[in-house]
Write a structure and sequence with these properties.
With about 350 residues, this protein is α+β, with helices and mostly antiparallel strands. It has two domains: about 5-195, no CATH class; about 205-355, Roll (Hypothetical upf0131 protein ytfp), CATH 3.10.490. The protein contains eleven helices and ten strands. The chain has helices spanning about 15-25, 30-55, 65-85, 95-105, 115-130, 160-180, 180-195, 215-220, 270-280, 325-335, 340-355; strands at about 5-10, 10, 140, 150, 155-160, 205-210, 225-245, 250-270, 285-295, 300-310. The strands form three sheets. A five-stranded antiparallel β-sheet has the order 6-8-7-9-10. It has a three-stranded mixed β-sheet with strand order 3-5-4. The chain has a two-stranded antiparallel ribbon with strand order 1-2. A hairpin with a 4-residue loop joins strand 7 (about 225-245) and strand 8. It starts with 5 loop residues before the first strand and ends with a helix.
Length: about 350
């Protein structure tokens, strides 16, 4: 890539590459420069054009109709925000429909139900960008009291309220990056590396660890290139110790479906190679796709599609977990800063395992 190519005004590919090692070391000055440049990029490409278009909204009789243009730019900005959040390297790496569903799952878009989140991508985003119109039963207005209102025959989006929500999501991401949130910065750098033409190893798999792999040293035994993603919880499951392990000389952790429970754990991004190694290590378990909730630094959550492992069979002898094995899980829970109540729950298991 041409090193003089600008990623933002007065900030080139070459300059980003010069700063890359300092960013990896969390150098404050380097991060300040890059984040200021990215803020300019978003402002120059999206926010200022939208503000210019919005000037026509303030006239009583509109000579122009800027609504669809603003909403189209909102959709492009959502794509941009999610690319930074997901550390997206290539267009097909994450489904655009999934990215939009994830984006609209935050509390700012509480008016959207599950079906609305999926339909918005197809009937609003794709409709406007590809056909210059919304499709099916969707309408766009500025005079409704809620962001999304429904009748028996239509769904009406208040584009002003929607736009305000999108802008707040961008500011929240920028805030997390400034505050040094590890998961946000890891994904952000992967996306920036791709934009700046640096070699990027793809991490297409998200693994939810709830047992000994919470601990970094245990994780690195198998997944040397795993990237930490963040603290998460899995609703609708309960932690159990029912899968017999000959290497542990006792029962290892597994999970079982239970609607009123949740399992806390940690997410890692994995390469194809590391996932293959992990699957080989987890003999006696089967792979299970799950939707977990990734915790942000401010306590907000984002749904993330991941995979985990569940034991194939329960131990007929009910051996119970060895104390040394529980020690690893407890150390990992402490290292990953799982909720104190959950750590105490694990400690109860440890006390029960004592002879």
């Amino acid at each position: 890539m041409d090193l003089t190519t600008e990623l933002a005004s007065n900030f080139t590919v070459g300059r980003y590459q010069q700063l890359r090692d300092l960013l990896a070391q969390n150098d404050p000055a380097a991060w300040c420069e890059v984040l200021y440049a990215v803020r300019r990029r978003i402002s120059e490409r999206f926010l200022r054009p939208m503000r210019d278009l919005a000037r026509f909204d303030k006239q009583e009789e509109l000579p122009n109709r800027p609504g669809f243009a603003i909403l189209a730019l909102d959709c492009l900005l959502i794509d941009t925000i999610q690319a930074f959040r997901e550390g997206r390297v290539s267009t097909g790496e994450v489904s655009p429909a999934h990215s939009f569903r994830t984006f609209l799952h935050t509390p700012r878009f509480a008016d959207f139900r599950s079906r609305d989140r999926a339909d918005f991508f197809h009937y609003v985003r794709n409709g406007i960008l590809h056909n210059g119109e919304t499709r099916k039963d969707w309408k766009v207005r500025i005079d409704t009291t809620r962001m999304l209102e429904r009748t028996a025959t239509s769904r009406t989006l208040n584009r002003r309220l929607f736009h305000a929500g999108v802008i707040k999501e961008w500011r929240e991401l920028h805030h997390h990056l400034r505050q040094g949130d590890t998961a946000s910065r890891t994904a952000f750098l992967q996306r920036m590396d791709s934009m700046a033409g640096l070699p990027v190893e793809t991490y297409p798999h998200v693994y939810f660890a709830y047992g000994s792999n919470l601990l970094t040293s245990e994780c690195e035994r198998t997944m040397q290139d795993a990237r930490p993603y963040g603290l998460a919880y899995l609703p609708g499951y309960r932690l159990v110790f029912t899968k017999h392990s000959t290497t542990r000389n006792g029962d290892a952790a597994s999970i079982t479906a239970e609607t009123t429970s949740m399992v806390w754990g940690f997410l890692y991004r994995l390469t194809d190679e590391d996932k293959a190694k992990l699957t080989l290590r987890e003999g006696g378990y089967y792979e299970q796709p799950v939707t977990v909730h990734l915790m942000a630094a401010d306590g907000n959550t984002t749904p993330v599609d991941a995979f985990t492992y569940i034991g194939n069979h329960a131990c007929a002898k009910h051996c119970g977990p060895p104390s040394t094995y529980l020690d690893l899980i407890i150390q990992g829970a402490r290292e990953r800063n799982l909720p104190q109540e959950y750590q105490e729950f694990l400690a109860l298991h440890q006390r029960d395992s004592q002879p």
